[in-house]
Amino acid sequence: MNPLSAPNHQEDYKLKDTKPQLGERWPHGGIRGGGGWINSERATSTYDLVEQMFYLYVRVEKARDLPPNPVTGNLDPYVEVKVGNYKGKTWHFEKKTNPEWKQVFAYSKDKIQSSVVEVFVREKEMVTRDEYVGKVVFDMNEVPTRVPPDSPLAPQWYRLEDRRGNKVKGEVMLAVWMGTQADEAFPEAWHSDAASVHGEGVFNIRSKVYVSPKLWYLRVNVIEAQDVEPHDRSQLPQAFVKAQVGNQILKSKLCPTRTTNPLWNEDLIFVAAEPFEEQLALTVENKVTPAKDEIMGRIILPLTIFERRLDHRLVHSKWFNLEKFGFGALEGDKRHELKFSSRIHLRVCLEGAYHVLDESTMYISDQRPTARQLWKQPIGILEVGILSAQGLTPMKTKDGRGTTDAYCVAKYGLKWVRTRTIIDSFNPKWNEQYTWEVYDPCTVITLGVFDNCHLGGSEKPGSGTGSKVDSRIGR
């Protein structure tokens, strides 16, 4: 074969440098190759893994110089934002002519069937629903579109008009724009999709990002005790130690010999979360019979006094005086007790050089130690677009029919996210995007879909909202 006419297969197998347009569309954010850091602006500006959803945003900042009600002489103002059939309301203020709301409303563009946006300033005590203090009307065709990371639209003062379009006393400060779910206002906005939700329920349906508490191992090395005395002084005690941190309770083995100076040298390991608000409660107890234990002394220690260890250096042990317990000692006898006391010898430290197992190893999403200074550099960024769910089952009954108010939760490492709740849908669409730093490829991200039980409807009539727990649909 003529070498000149042969195809150049070697070119096909050479390394090629490609530059896909993932996350590089905005000049302010982006990933730096190899360094493993993420610009915080990037998280709010790129929504390239999900379907873009457009929303009409109306930010209601404040009002000034509102005229008082001619009947009462006062004004309890609130704002109503009306787009077609959808109405969003701010809370109302008592007797205030210069109120500040700072609330955002989002109306899904797909569902808008009106060519105008109407913003009404209303008085809570109005006799009829048609009355209002004044209104501002925007033509939908003139609403600007904002694309992050463009600066947010500055709100402006608008003079109120009456029913005939004449200017009246009072102004309201507003910003109106068209944007997507990448907008910073998206998580905090009241959504027209949830128009039936009122009051505290609005906070239950918003998307949120949570950071799990930092967990440490609390290692309690119970070494020995001195001069522990049982109630019945004629018999030597068979002693053990019971330790409690929060709801965790651990016991040492029984000291093999009956003695007032028992020796255990045993480790009890607890998990403690920052900030350390819990205490270590220790009791030295006597096994009187197989069914009966008696307390011979106790001590309660705040976790904040213990050393934090990030390596294997030796932690010094310490003697602690035990309080006598159950001998009917009065308050006045406390000073006398301190002259002679039973003692316990402990070596206690908070360990941050290990990973605290807070989930089963099958589903482990993080293998880093607690101490941040021991973390390796991240190997990259995991980006997840939570798009939608299909064919969900009815989780409760509302007005005699099955319904589901679904949200999705994703957990990886210390960060877990929750999408907004989509009301009354078996095929919800969220289209929200989140990022995590990844330190180990051999880890797992967990996603779950839940039904929000705080929005009314119940399988069990008369069950109180206080005891409700969101039902898991699947994971």
From TrEMBL:
InterPro entries, A to Z: C2_dom, C2_domain_sf, C2B_MCTP_PRT_plant, C2C_MCTP_PRT_plant, QUIRKY-like
UniProt cross-references to Pfam families, sorted A to Z: C2
Domain C2: from-to ranges: 37-158, 197-320, 358-475
SMART domains per UniProt: C2
Biased composition (Basic and acidic residues): 9-19
Disordered: annotated span: 1-26
SUPFAM superfamilies: C2 domain (Calcium/lipid-binding domain, CaLB)
Protein name: C2 domain-containing protein
Organism: Xanthoceras sorbifolium
